[in-house]
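From the shared-data thread, chain only:
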Amino acid sequence: MKKSLLLTFALAAQTVLFSQSCSDLIISEYAEGSNNNKALEIYNPTPAAIALNGNYRLVRYNNGTGAIAGEANAQAMINLGNHVIASGDVFVIVIDKRDASQPCPGNECAVDLDLQALADTFLCPDYNVSYSMYFNGNDAVSLQKFNGTAWNYVDIFGMIGDPAMVSSQAWSDQFPYDGSAGAWWTKDQTLVRKSNVTQGVSANPSPYFNVTLEYDSLPNETWTGLGSHTCDCISDNVNERTQAPTTSIYPNPTSNGHLFVQANENIVSVELMNLVGEKLAFETSALNSRLVQVATASQAPGIYFVRVNYSNKRSTVHRVTIR
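Structure, as tokens:
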């Protein structure tokens, strides 16, 4: 009888845990780059589409600001509007800074073209309106949901009210994780949520925020993971979406001053890069085009990489030889 009760309790506990996991939106990627190159990716791990319907918002807590002070400042909040996020899909948020004529670096510096191509929505560029997206390495950010009477935490990045952030520039990867030891992780980094994280942080981390527990770190201004997310809450449409497109590049090697990129999916842009990742050429495609020509006549003979960015926000990288 005791074994039966224990088994029943274990199964009940497992059911509760499962019901809490994969049940609401999570922050799946955090990009804190130079100037205005900042992005948040929101992932839907549930088996059904989620209509935001004005019921989700982002709140930024500046430099150690506590919960009460942050939420009292209306400028700290961004309502995410009426977008719909499909099951297993993501929603990429970027600041609407796209005027390439603005001086850079500077407050009006344009967002990197690669990052622009990955955005699902561009937020108003006015600092006082989109305060939540102007985060730096020492700002906490929360994703909140309205339950009809109050706003509840769905996910929290950082530690709200962390007094160390008043003087520190970022959370780090060594104890006490407040930037005083180890490498900074939340400044000039792109952070990707680990695949085994299936639910958001609904209670403010205390006594510290250990960013390494739930996030993996990528080099500054790495955007290749934006637009898709791998999670243990896997559904069929996620598997379909993460299959690589079929792409052909010809002639390869090329010696006639150009090459063609052809794919079975619509191409947004094609980049030609050298072996250290410097962008040498950038070609955009016509609407719904699956064939793009890239000029190579100005490049010295050698080995290069071609990155192809598709309309479904995936990208692939290919090696080419120029003679």
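Residues 211 and 236 are 30 Å apart (CA to CA).
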